[in-house]
Amino acid sequence: MTEEDARAQVGGVLAAFAQGRPGDAKLLLHPYLHWTTPSGDTVRGRANVLALLSELAATDAALPEPESVELRDGQIYRWLSA
After folding, report:
1. Less packed terminus of the chain by CB within 10 Å, N or C?
2. Predicted confidence (pLDDT) per residue in 19-28, tens digit
3. Residue 26: what pLDDT?
4. Residue ranges covered by each domain of the chain
């Protein structure tokens, strides 16, 4: 996977939540996802990350842009927030 693939996946996740369609993001996230928040906390697992992102979206908080992303099997496996 290329850097362009990673940017496309990130854009898809951010757009899904911005448009109120978190279910669309599920397909872009690996089941064993590791998501590191800007505060340094790590959330593991797609269901837990989707719950976190849904909470953020409900408060109109901007989803954190990643500092780096790792893809596995065409899905986001690791997201390190800036």
Report:
1. C
2. 889 899 999 9
3. 94
4. 3-81
- Interval 38-61: pLDDT, tens: 899 999 999 999 999 888 888 877
Q: Which two tokens stand for residue 40?
A: 């340094």
pTM assigned to the model: 0.89
Q: Which amino acid is at 10?
A: V
Q: Which CATH architecture has domain 3-81?
A: Roll (3.10)
Q: How many residues are recorded in the chain?
A: 82
Tokens of 81: 């927030």
Tell me how far apart the alpha carbons of residues 18 and 1 are, in angstroms, rounded to a whole number. 25
The sheet with strand 66-72 has its strands ordered as 42-44, 29-36, 75-81, 66-72
Strand, coil or helix: what is 80?
A: strand
Q: Quickly tell me which residue has 């837990």 as its tokens.
A: 48
